[in-house]
Design a protein that fits this description.
The structure is a single chain. By secondary structure, the chain is mainly beta. Helices cover 10% and strands 39% of the residues. The strands form two sheets. A five-stranded mixed β-sheet has the order 5-1-7-6-10, with helices on one face. A hairpin with a 2-residue loop joins strand 3 and strand 4. The radius of gyration is 21 Å and the shape is elongated. The protein starts with 23 loop residues before the first strand and ends with a strand.
């Protein structure tokens, strides 16, 4: 009887796990000074709109460090997060930008932040491609501003002060 043939092939390593529909995690900053909210100005086909500064978390990075890094990259500022305010999801296919964001799903953790240093505000090292600037939006004008998530406007009380819930807000835009 002949011995079985030798298998000289090395065992193959398993392929790394790559999710078919990754969910992005992001951190954003709420910075208020002199009754004004710091916002990043973006532009689309309908014109300018405003969002909180912040962006995507890198692998191995704590969220506090994400919000610090993103504010420095987008706006050239130094912030210090001191309190988590809320968590929201953005499932693109359910909202205004569905055509462009139909496969985009992001979980955002939003922090109250102190502005530590303005530096050369508005001149970050890695601005977003649709970013066209920044603005200190007077809280009294926020309701009339094209701001996302739009639910954020409902956090203004009758005195135009922010009363932000510490909660999970779900899928909002």
């Amino acid at each position: 009887m002949k011995p079985p043939p030798q298998n000289n092939k090395r065992p193959q390593r398993p392929k790394p796990f790559v999710p078919s529909n990754p969910i992005r995690v992001a951190a954003r900053a709420v910075v208020v000074r002199d009754n004004k909210l710091l916002a990043v100005i973006l532009r689309d086909q309908s014109g300018p709109f405003y969002v909180l500064p912040g962006g995507g978390q890198k692998h191995g990075e704590e969220l506090y460090n994400t919000v610090r890094r993103e504010c420095a990259e987008e706006l050239g500022i130094s912030v210090e997060p001191y309190k988590m305010l809320y968590v929201r999801e953005y499932i693109g296919k359910n909202h205004d930008f569905a055509a462009r964001h139909k496969h985009f799903h992001q979980v955002e953790v939003v922090f109250a932040c102190d502005l530590v240093e303005e530096g050369n505000i508005g001149h970050g090292s890695e601005e977003d491609s649709r970013q066209v600037g920044y603005k200190w939006i007077p809280l009294a004008e926020l309701r009339e501003t094209r701001f996302f998530p739009s639910l954020f406007k409902t956090f203004l009380n009758d005195k135009n002060e922010l009363e932000i819930p510490t909660d999970y807000l779900g899928d909002i835009n």
